[in-house]
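# nightly structure sweep
# worker-07 picked up a monomer target from the shared queue
# config: single-sequence mode, recycle default, output format = structure tokens
# input follows
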Amino acid sequence: MPEVQKIKLVLEDGTVFEGKSFGYHKSVAGEVVFNTAMTGYPESLTDPSYEGQILVSTYPLIGNYGVPKNDTENGIPKFHESDRIHISGLVISDYSFEYSHWNAENSLREWLIQNKVPGIFGIDTRALTMILREKGSMLGKIEVEGEEIDFVDPNKENLVAKVSVKEKKVYGNGKHKVVLVDTGAKNNILRCLLKRDTTVIRVPWDYDFTQEDYDGIMLSNGPGDPQMCEVTIKHIQKAIEIGKPIFGICLGNQLLGIASGASTYKLKYGHRAHNHPVIKVGTDTCYITSQNHGFAIDNDTLSDEWEPLFVNINDKTNEGIKHKTKPFFSTQFHPEASSGPTDTEFLFDELIKNIEASK
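# output follows
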């Protein structure tokens, strides 16, 4: 093991965790959140929904399978969810300096250093997670010796504007034209659409996509407070009036809810894992889902034309909505998964069915 430097994690309540540095050695600040997934750190680190956050992995050993190659397919990275790391810092219990995987290109440590993202290991992540569960997600900072910084609340920024594409891009040449409203879209949303005979028109968060020639709309995931996306919400309201099929994921679920007249609120510590059970309303069908969000729709504020589609079995929070008569629906969880599970990918087929029925 190479020689490592001391580094610490400081929470806004004054709690300090001493650890060792294994990434880029610098101080950073952000919102500290935890993820209980056992695998998938390359996908999580490149998920734009983590913009501005210091990610705590509760799984005890991280780094043992390295980081995949940065190959591209259909104009997007093949094994990553975006073109860069979005977390501000990574906090883990134990780092594996040795890695082995058929698709590994380099180590997690090398990857963090290349992207100038700090990593800290040797932390009791169980104790840290208990604090976050009890008190809720809180501000924190990773500090190196001699480089003290202030706390920063990323939710006060328009994080969506930071992670969205800057100009329109077109992918594929399928028969169904789908507008992907990029508020921080994961690449696997694109992959799932492209393999269903679509032409995907990816547009910035503030782009008036209602002027496009399209068959359906995909509202993507993304970071931060949905109330920051006022322009996007206005465009969604226009799209609702037009009436063509709409499918929203994660932040897209919240934006569709707000556009329909509902309100959202911040969860105590959010949902970030691969194993959240949700039940489809009106059925006994349960799905295991991948999730990454800190805000949710208030079911009690849905108008008479809308109803909950899925509910989280653990805490009864909203996991999706649908219009009672029109082809609009959304999920708070990630049916595109990456890195799993894929139990609900069939919902992309539901979008295509709605498009075909609307033509």
